[in-house]
Amino acid sequence: MKFGGTSVADIDRIRNAARHVKRESAAGHEVAVVVSAMAGVTNQLVALCETAGKERHVYDRREYDAVVATGEQVTAGLMAIALQDLGIKARSWQGWQLPILTSAAHGAARIADIDGAALIRHFKDKEVPVIAGFQGVHKETGRVTTLGRGGSDTSAVAIAAAIRAERCDIYTDVDGVYTSDPRVVPRAKRLDKVAFEEMLELASLGAKVMQVRSVELGMVHNVRIFVRSSFDAPDSIDPHGNPPGTLICDEGEIMEQQTVTGIAFSRDEAQISIRQVQDKPGVAAAIFGPLAAANINVDMIVQNVSADGKTTDLTFTVPAADYQRSLDTIKKAKEAIGYQRLDGATDVAKISVIGIGMRSHAGVAAEAFRALAERAINIRAITTSEIKFSLLIDAAYTELAVRTLHSLYGLDQAAP
Ligand code: ADP
Ligand code: ASP
Ligand code: MG
């Protein structure tokens, strides 16, 4: 049972979450609990690091981890106390105590190994382990690491895999995964089931309800993930019944497959266009090599075939946070690349349409082009893959575009 930040935002919510745990444990289930930091705490800790190191901008990522990992330590202890207060045997575990061994990539570490045996031993004593999410420890240096923002989801799925749990329940502030972010699309519908592959696309293309790596891990280890609400009254739920929520599972478990399952969007994009680039072998390498070396993740790439065989334009997108660094990197490589002009924009958004059914349906994207054209929304770039396509548009039209496509593909809930 994993509880996210809003679900443990204050003592009342922590006590409410503890009652969810009590219900399951009283029903005879062996449960391990994973908690996030209280809502807003991680942001505050990140801001403190930034202020402490403000002159040099780049500060020691190991110390960043030492600071931001504390948020989860607090909630783990508080949750254990709240459980004990309800008469349940419980103790907190920090990442290094379990241990959750990770890579050395401070701030975005990957889990390498978790020994589930210690947890399983404690189940025998009817003790509920409360594990601090988001954090681990690097095997060689023994230093505290964190798993990247939203990383408690990944802690939970990894622990579920390590103890071979029947299910990994993600308790959050929505009662499941919706066809689009319910904050932007009021008529979004809850999905009863969604395939790992689709959830992976939804998450990596902007739906922040689950961290991307947690879905990846679930897919690799075949952990069934159930996204549900922590705001439901704990005692109104039948621990053996079918509560509302979304099961993220294997494609084979889903009977009725829609063509389009969901729409994701992201405003964290920036567009860079290189004008009149020489059209000759080696130019793409001269552009994307230095960007890769600078650890900049390039996403959409659009290049035209030149008419005269000499020059063409090339457009690509990068995370908005890396925009300036990307421009600087390209300018530095100007001589090797050979181009006339560099343009860019940060007021862009990427809208993505996702569905496994697209594999066997033609013309799905064409419908979107027509619908957006009718709304006079211009498309700057397009990318497609087997189960999704993405469109880059002006950020000002994000909500209109998402809602238009949501209706177009029949995802709207009937008006109440
Ligand atoms: P937690 O703190 O529990 O980890 P998050 O804020 O990380 O919760 O994730 C839950 C939020 O994800 C929801 O409040 C919702 O606004 C947002 N979200 C974005 N896309 C979706 C979607 N397709 N379905 C459900 N929630 C979504
Ligand atoms: N507290 C961490 C964050 O805000 C991890 C998480 O909530 O999953 O990113
Ligand atoms: Mg989250």
How would you describe the overall organization of this protein?
This protein is an alpha/beta fold and 416 residues long. The protein contains 13 helices and 18 strands. It has helices at residues 11-26, 41-52, 61-68, 70-85, 117-124, 152-162, 196-204, 212-221, 283-293, 323-332, 334-337, 364-374, 398-408, and strands spanning 2-3, 33-35, 90-93, 100-102, 111-114, 128-132, 135-138, 144-146, 168-172, 193-195, 225-229, 246-249, 262-278, 301-303, 311-319, 341-354, 381-385, 388-394. The protein has an eight-stranded mixed beta sheet, sandwiched between helices. A hairpin with a 2-residue loop joins strand 17 and strand 18. Helix 1 (11-26) crosses helix 4, helix 7 (196-204) runs antiparallel to helix 8 and helix 12 (364-374) crosses helix 13. The protein is globular. Bound molecules: adenosine-5'-diphosphate, aspartic acid and magnesium ion. Residues 4, 150, 153 line the site of magnesium ion.
What does this entry show, briefly?
33% of the residues lie in helices and 24% in strands. It is of the alpha/beta class and 416 residues long. The chain has an eight-stranded mixed beta sheet with strand order 3-6-2-1-9-11-12-10, with helices on both faces. A six-stranded antiparallel beta sheet has the order 14-15-13-16-18-17.
